[in-house]
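We close this part of the discussion by returning to an individual protein. The amino acid sequence and the backbone structure tokens for this protein are reproduced below:
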Amino acid sequence: MNTEVVVGLVSAGVSMLGAVAAGLMATWSTQRTRRYEHLLMAQQKAESKAEQAELVLSRYREPLLLAAQNLHSRLYRIVNNNILATYLHSGEPDMERYTRDYTVYVLAEYLCWAEIIRRDLRFLDLGAEERNRGLVRRLEDVQLAIADPALPRPLRLFRGQQRAIGEVMMTPTGNMESAQYEALGCAQFFTRLDDDPAFPQWFDRIRAGLDQVAGADQAERAQLIRMQHRLVDLIEFLDPKQLRLPARLRDRLAPPGTPTPATAAD
């Protein structure tokens, strides 16, 4: 075979192999670029979810923390200081009503903020974000404690009842750049109990049954303590460094039968 022909065939073969190699490299490079873009988009999506979760948490941390503290403090004083037994029949009508209705209010206020934040987290679809899961888990722990059948009946509220009370306690803020809803203030709550015929029905059973809570037996008191502990768990999650609430405002109730000193936990 002519040398020139051989050289031509070899050159053609080399060119063909080069073209195939270049094609393979281009395909590999394209696939690698797509994989990188996919990973980058997934990372950006995860970061966006984390940022949104932190935004929701920062938006509601303060009101949820204070609502949890108000309710945990009330439970502490009911169990440890017997405030219901002391003040519900003190002979002072104003004090009796305040004791009854403020106890209901702190429970309703907490349920309201829990419902508000639960709605925002649901709409933002943040279920895969670790910090969000921690918050949701603690909200659910409190929810289960309030729904526990062993809790004194006046305070026992099933999931739907808790969410309904949270909903009727919501009031628009009028601020579209921040939270769209907040919980009714204490004065608003007391006024609506008097002036809104439909409003008190959500709270009548609780208000009327607080005498039963005052006389709770040991098993019922144990559930009140469990509920208080779940609230402290939530408080510690929201404020782990005690920047907003010092340690003295998050004491845990001791188990039934354990001697504890009386404190002014409210």
Q: What stands out?
A: The chain has eight helices and two strands. The radius of gyration is 30 Å. The CA atoms of residues 91 and 97 lie 11 Å apart.
